[in-house]
Amino acid sequence: MNHSSDVAASGQQADPVGSQTLATFTSVNRAAPAFSQIANQLIEAIETKRFVIGDRLPSEGALSSQFQVSRATVREALSCLQFAGYAESRRGSGTVVISDVAQGAGAMSTAGPSSTSELIDLFTARLAIEPAVVRNAATNPVRGSLNTLAAMLRGMELSLDRPELDVHTDLGVHMALVSACSNQYLVGSCELVLGQVEGKLWRRLRDNSWTNHGAPQRWLSDHHGIAEAVFSHRPEDAARHMKSHLLSVLTDILDDALLVGEDKQKVEMLQESPITTDPQ
Questions:
Q1: Which residues pair with 95 in a beta bridge?
Q2: Which of 93, 124, 243, 268 is most buried, judging by how many CB atoms fall within 10 Å of its CB?
Q3: Which of these, 171, 196, 155, 181, lies nearest to 278 by C-alpha position?
């Protein structure tokens, strides 16, 4: 079955069966955790176009039978794909392929910030919007969105333990938090800002921090703090954790940059600024 990448963009429902057949998967072994082997095989199938955008992946039951593992193991593999931005879970459609590249590896079309000053300005916008988004999510979460958020967190946790999955971004968690917000204007504003994040400068700085400065585990811990506040309906804590996280990320990625002049003043002002209030 041949699909074009226009399927998802056209708004049509995913086809009941993807273009990949179960028979082409290989069985798992003891060399690595089963979930990571399954995730790697699914990612390879997506990147080589054996599954294309709009295809529905085989069901948990079918994958469980094929790989001779539990459904829980399959769910862990699928959570890694969702976190990395290859697929998403859709009610009534299962897990659907949404990209053939990982988020942070070219999935965004924007050029992103081209200078340190622009990057700081982008984080200024994020600090104005994202705390308000998670405050709203903690107050009035969109139905079903917290399950997606939990899956994203699990996907990040599992991916960090398996470097062969080669995931260097936490964008999926942030997008899951946005999806939990019920205020359409906040959602639109946040999606617009997050859509400007990716670019050569950002990827270089983020990858350096991810690889050399221990950022992944700190960011994961931050995400757990934000999510726990959302899950337990503590809006002000959620907003405070988000602001702290974004400032930490900004500090991490600029760790090797010797900020001077206006850029240094901008960062110092951000660190001292209060959390914005969500205009409900």
A1: 89
A2: 243
A3: 181
